[in-house]
Write a structure and sequence with these properties.
By secondary structure, the protein is an all-alpha fold. Helices cover 72% and strands 0% of the residues.
Length: 88
């Protein structure tokens, strides 16, 4: 990407468009729409919402895992499986 930047370090319009396309491809809601182009503002709002939802999901899974671990025998095979998964 740096090869397309001007000598002043600015990002070209072409590079911005490429980055927007890449970002759009990463969002589940954008993939459902297919190839229709969303506005950059809408795309950035969707990205922020998606990141927030991922944070909530991680928090929820972390809470559920903590609850599960607190009720398990720490020497049980299930606890060992969870520990091995968390190590990887």
């Amino acid at each position: 990407m740096s090869s397309r930047r001007s000598s002043r370090g600015n990002i070209s319009d072409e590079e911005i468009n490429e980055l927007i396309s890449r970002l759009q491809a990463l969002l589940p809601s954008s993939r459902r729409r297919g190839s229709s182009q969303a506005s950059t503002t809408k795309l950035l709002k969707e990205t922020c919402s998606y990141i927030k939802s991922l944070h909530r999901e991680v928090d929820d899974l972390s809470d559920r895992l903590s609850d599960l671990m607190s009720t398990m025998d720490h020497n049980s095979p299930g606890a060992e499986i969870i520990r091995s998964i968390l190590r990887s």
